Amino acid sequence: MDDDLTALRDSCTRFLTGHGPQRAADLLADIPPGTAVDRYGEGGVVTELEAEVAGMLGQPAAVYLPSGTMAQQSVLRVHADRTGRRTVLFHPECHLDQHEGRALERLQRLVGRPVGDRSRLLTLADLATVAEPAAALVLELPQRDLGGQLPAWDDLVAQASWARERGSAAHLDGARLWEASAGYDRSPAEIAALFDTTYVSFYKGLGALAGCCVAGPADVVAEVREWRGRMGGTLFGLWPGAASALTNLRRRLPRMPEYLEHARAVAAAVRDLPGVSVVPDPPQTPMLHLLLRTTPEAFAAAARSLAADQELWTWPKAMTTVDPGVQRVELPVGDATLALTPAEVRAAVSALSGSAPAR
Question: Could you tell me which of 68, 281, 338, 289 has the C-alpha nearest to residue 177?
């Protein structure tokens, strides 16, 4: 984002997405003054967070890592080494395939195999087309690039069982498990119980500093801890991210049902606007995508106008789609979104879609 847009954002007093802007002072305030520091990932608040996450997910152990990319590469490498297989199955929009520069192949010598159609959720019928033995099946909950969609619970159970019945590990990409828990109206532990291992993020959905955990059997987690060291993730002190994670996990996980309720209220408020589509409708988690029939230039101009005239920050730009006349935006619902009424969100989306002037 250029300096002009950054200055415009900083001048705003209201924010549409998530928990609002991440300012250094606010992030540092999430670290209690009495935080006990770790030493190379051992002891202090890091150990406290690992124990809390393991208990919350109903797993024997958990390990803290500084990034999700490192976490999932590590745990999938462990599953591959244990099974003697190199193929990892995942949805075509999986983060491993889309956003990590082929690290799974280039660093871990694993073979990623997308399964199913990128425009819809993975199904058991898709998995039935796979004949080769796989090290692991990765399931993302919710499917972020599809607007935060969740498979039906019975489908999820069947897919995880499909993997295990074939000697493959079932791994949960639960970067947004906290939101999925609200969508299923089930505890994080009930969801994690379907899987051999679970990855959770603390900045996605919760708004903490960067960092994550992998939870599962103690022996698997111990190997992931060793891979953390091999990949340069065992920093001298991991305590700032761990402390921020604990604060925001305790603060915001209980609010996920409230965020989901507001997401559905927002969807109801905007779904009848001309040129606006809600994906999915109704939202299944505290996240939704909006498809807006407008141009990138018109969207950017309307977003600037809302920021300059109403001190309301929305998005710096929209994401393109296969249709040049349709733009896509992602709306994660958090504390900042809750501060806006559905009517206020409707007015903003109306202006961004060109169905009403920004004012």
Answer: 68
Domain hosting residue 298, numbered range: 3-22+255-353
- Over the stretch 19-76, which tens digit does the pLDDT of each residue have? 999 899 999 999 999 999 999 999 999 999 999 999 999 999 999 999 999 999 999 9
CB atoms within 10 A of CB 205: 28
Same domain? For 202 and 323 the reply is no
Residue 309 and residue 245 in one domain = no
Please count the helices (runs of H) and the strands (runs of E) in the chain: 16, 13
CA distance 317 to 300: 6
- Residue 225 sits in a domain whose CATH number is 3.40.640.10
How confident is the model over 164-176, as pLDDT tens digits? 999 999 999 999 9
What is the token pair recorded at 165? Answer: 């019945």
Whether residue 248 contacts residue 230, with contact meaning beta carbons closer than 8 Å, is answered with no
Is beta strand 87-90 parallel, antiparallel or unpaired with respect to 136-140? parallel
Regarding whether 53 and 152 lie in a shared domain, the answer is yes
Q: Which residue has the tokens 């169905």?
A: 355
